[in-house]
Amino acid sequence: MSTALVVRLVFWLWFIAAVVAGQRLTLQHLPPPATQGVLFGLTALLLFGYFRLAPLRAWVDSLDLRALVLLHVIRFVGVYFLLLYRRGELPYSFAVPGGIGDIVVATFALVIVFAPLAEPQRLRVTSIWNVAGLVDILLVVSTAIRLTLADPSQMRALTRLPLSLLPTFLVPLIIATHIVIFARLARVRSAA
Predict the structure, then answer these.
(1) Is residue 99 exposed (0-12), middle (13-18) or buried (19+ Cβ within 10 Å)?
(2) pTM greater than 0.90 (yes/no)
(3) Which of these, 156, 172, 181, lies nearest to 95 by C-alpha position?
(4) Are the CB atoms for 51 and 182 separated by under 8 Å?
């Protein structure tokens, strides 16, 4: 079985498991810090796979760097954060800064992928975007942790579908791809 097929199979099974967990409200039955533990555990597994499994790393490294950046358009979910804030389902301190930050990162991901830039410019812009995007997602996660520990009920929207997919699927992918992009950019710079 090819590495690409195995990767697709694992990702689909992981996605299905995340959806089932969301349908069963699994995150609501966990103590508050456990959800963040799931998020960081999944991120660590992804990074372990990338850095320790040569076939997986080779497959990921064969992808166009823009494909990894394009994954981040999912961060337009920030629009939904703003909508949930307006409905009173998410607190301002999470939804507004996180929502706006994610929208900005997603918008610039589109620019990086589709703008007609020379390769050196694209790599420079990607480096800047990657730092900003990683800082943004880490601030969003740390804000969610702080608010959940203070009062879990204010972050309840993140424990049911569709937002339960954030800690159980999307955010680990987002954080891991930022780190993979850093690794790939470092290799490009060292080769040049």
Answers:
(1) buried
(2) yes
(3) 156
(4) no
Residue 109 carries which side chain, given as an amino acid letter? A
Per-residue pLDDT of 71-113, as tens digits, reads 999 999 999 999 999 999 999 999 999 999 999 999 999 999 9
Structure tokens at 110: 């589109």
Write down the residue that tokens 């812009």 correspond to: 125
Could you tell me if 50 and 178 are in contact, meaning their C-beta atoms sit under 8 angstroms apart?
Answer: no
DSSP letter at 153 equals G
Query: What distance in Å separates the CA atoms of residue 146 and residue 142, rounded to the nearest whole number?
Result: 6
Query: Containing domain of residue 161, as a range?
Result: 3-191
Split into its structural domains, the chain has a count of 1
- The secondary structure of residue 169, as a DSSP letter, is I
Task: Find out whether 174 and 39 touch, Cβ atoms under 8 Å.
Answer: no
What are the C-alpha distances in Å from 113 to residues 13, 30, 38, 159?
A: 28, 38, 30, 32
Which residue in 113, 96, 104 sits closest to 76, CA to CA?
Answer: 104
